[in-house]
Design goal:
Layout (H helix, E strand, L loop, with lengths): L2 H20 L6 H8 L3 H7 L3 H17 L12 H16 L2 H16 L1 H27 L8 H15 L1 H7 L6 H19 L3
Helix pairs in contact: 1-2, 1-4, 1-6, 2-3, 4-6, 4-7, 5-10, 6-7, 7-8, 8-9, 8-10
Length: 199
């Protein structure tokens, strides 16, 4: 990783820490610079304003989601096994400490700022287009009993987040063990396939 990328990552991590402790409005760029152990000038070189820094945090979070995008749909591979792999990658991300901390910073500010919420939702829709396309391929392959790939994707993501993301974010549950993650994956696959799988 280049030094400039390292500095950017330090700033984002420091901003997440400070926003989490003091809120967006209660955090100054000076404080973020101190926490990141960089100069204020370095912070502004990467992020000209606090709003742009917030946008950078959102992009970082969605970049993590993008890394869990599915491999191209394979008509010769077992559908359930492909789906299981996707669910596992998603759940491992959603229960991670970093992802939960990012969510705890982003969601309150986005809820209080309609424009930021709209921008975040637009970015998420673009990222999830890969998932929608994957499910469209599964529909075309006659593996799913549904015609609306976007609706299938929405349901799948809701099921996957149920015991992983929301239980961590809203109920404060600890990071699950590997065995617990495996159980979450199997539960999600079972629920989804009982309704959608065209076996």
């Amino acid at each position: 990783m280049k030094l400039t990328d390292q500095k950017r990552q330090q700033i984002i991590q420091a901003a997440v820490e400070e926003f989490h402790k003091n809120g967006f409005s209660g955090t100054s760029m000076d404080t973020i610079a101190q926490t990141a152990e960089v100069s204020k000038r370095t912070v502004y070189n990467h992020f000209p304003s606090k709003d742009e820094l917030f946008a950078g945090i959102v992009q970082h979070m969605f970049g993590m989601v993008l890394e869990t995008s599915p491999e191209p749909y394979n008509t010769k591979a077992d559908f359930v096994e492909q789906l299981r792999g996707i669910a596992k990658r998603k759940i491992e991300l959603f229960v991670s400490e970093e992802f939960i901390n990012l969510s705890r910073v982003i969601m309150p500010e986005a809820l209080h700022n309609p424009q930021k919420m709209q921008e975040a939702m637009a970015q998420m829709s673009a990222i999830e287009s890969d998932m929608v396309n994957w499910f469209q391929q599964a529909i075309n392959d006659n593996k799913i009993k549904e015609e609306d790939a976007a609706d299938v994707c929405f349901t799948f993501m809701g099921i996957v987040k149920m015991d992983s993301y929301w239980s961590r974010l809203l109920k404060g549950r600890p990071v699950p063990s590997k065995n617990e993650i495996d159980n979450m994956v199997e539960k999600a696959i079972t629920i989804f396939c009982r309704y959608y799988f065209n076996d």
